[in-house]
Design goal:
Elements lengths: L2 H6 L11 H4 L6 E5 L24 H14 L7 E3 L8 E4 L16 E4 L5 E6 L3 E7 L4 E7 L1 H6 L1 H11 L8 E4 L9 E3 H10 L7 E3 L7 E4 L1 H11 L4 E4 L14 H6 L8 E7 L1
Parallel strand pairs: 2-5, 3-4, 8-12
Antiparallel strand pairs: 1-13, 4-7, 5-13, 6-7, 6-8, 9-11, 10-11
């Protein structure tokens, strides 16, 4: 099958994972979804809904995958935007004046906040946590990419502050932590643990000793850490989806699994939130 044949295939109905916390906001016209790797046109290690242009996949196939995701929300493809993610705590506010529709012109940030309707904020992940936010009363939404560096640097705190500057109230913000690497799969060394304990001694509670008894190694609970940061920031409505991206190859792309398999290439999932 040629690339053109793949792109022209009828698009299946996509079935993203939904958050119970954000689903409560459907009547307010807030749509969201954590998409799996299924339902796209990419092949091989990228099979099939790879949405990352930086993955090495054929750009035409990635473009079609993104078009299908945008169509799921009733959006034209250029209205689904992603940032140039680089494991930071930088947040960009998307306005009509700085809206980009070309991925090559994307803002360099790891989170986006907006009050604009008709725009889908997309986050790309392959083990890092996608976090989607919404305040239905003020109609402010946000999306964040939270790897350990961004999480420790306070990416979620920065998102909440940015949302509040646009009129959101902390007690009204709903946040959903999507599929990401789970503690059982997230083995780290002592240096990694030291980063978190140095930042705050209580962070040690997010680590357990190596499950196979490996000296000086631990397992980190990324989602639980993010939930605790959100709670400390005054966000009371938080959900954790719970799927382990590293342990479910049929459903999710995973950077860590690609390392286990000595495979340098891997796809990217997308998580999206949009205001109708």
């Amino acid at each position: 099958m040629t690339h053109s044949d793949s792109v022209s295939k009828p698009a299946p109905i996509l079935s993203p994972v939904l958050s119970p916390v954000l689903s409560r906001l459907d009547p307010a016209g807030i749509q969201h979804g954590f998409f799996t790797r299924m339902g796209g046109v990419s092949a091989g290690v990228y099979d099939s809904l790879n949405c990352g242009y930086g993955s090495g996949d054929d750009a035409a196939l990635v473009r079609e995958n993104r078009r299908r995701v945008a169509a799921h929300f009733g959006l034209a493809a250029p209205h689904l935007i992603t940032a140039y993610q680089h494991h930071s705590a930088l947040v960009t506010v998307v306005t009509p004046e700085n809206l980009w529709r070309d991925p090559a012109a994307a803002a360099k940030a790891d989170a986006m906040v907006t009050t604009m309707p008709g725009i889908g904020l997309g986050i790309l992940t392959a083990d890092c946590a996608p976090v989607l936010f919404a305040d239905a009363e003020s109609r402010v939404i946000a999306a964040a990419h939270a790897g350990w560096r961004g999480a420790l640097a306070g990416i979620t705190d920065q998102v909440v502050d940015s949302m509040c500057r646009l009129g959101a109230r902390r007690e009204s913000i709903h946040a959903a932590i999507g599929p990401c690497i789970a503690q059982a799969s997230y083995e780290v060394g002592a240096d990694f643990l030291a980063h978190f304990v140095t930042a705050h001694p209580l962070n040690e509670r997010f680590f357990i000793p190596s499950l196979v008894g490996k000296p000086g190694h631990y397992h980190f609970a990324l989602a639980a850490y993010l939930a605790a940061r959100l709670s400390a920031a005054g966000v009371n409505h938080v959900s954790i989806q719970g799927d382990d991206t590293a342990a479910l190859p049929g459903q999710y792309f995973s950077w860590r699994r690609s390392c286990w398999e000595n495979q340098p290439l891997y796809g990217r999932m997308i998580a999206v939130i949009a205001l109708a």
